[in-house]
Design goal:
mainly alpha
């Protein structure tokens, strides 16, 4: 179990890999949720390269955390 704060997101790695993932998420407070199809995600990356760079950085940090690396 992991608690995510305001502005957090999940499922980005499966979007990069074009894999379907199943997540269970529960909100402890009123929340707004945005879900992007793989097509919209790809369009976002292609039309906003600055967003792509930010996501790549965040995914890299996430994978380091998951695998216990401290590069």
């Amino acid at each position: 179990t992991e608690f995510l704060g305001s502005g957090a997101f999940f499922g980005e790695i499966s979007s990069f890999l074009h894999q379907k993932r199943n997540f269970t998420a529960r909100a402890h407070t009123d929340s707004s949720i945005l879900s992007l199809s793989q097509e919209l995600f790809a369009d976002l990356i292609l039309t906003h390269p600055e967003a792509a760079q930010k996501l790549i950085s965040l995914v890299s940090s996430s994978s380091s955390h998951i695998y216990g690396r401290k590069d």
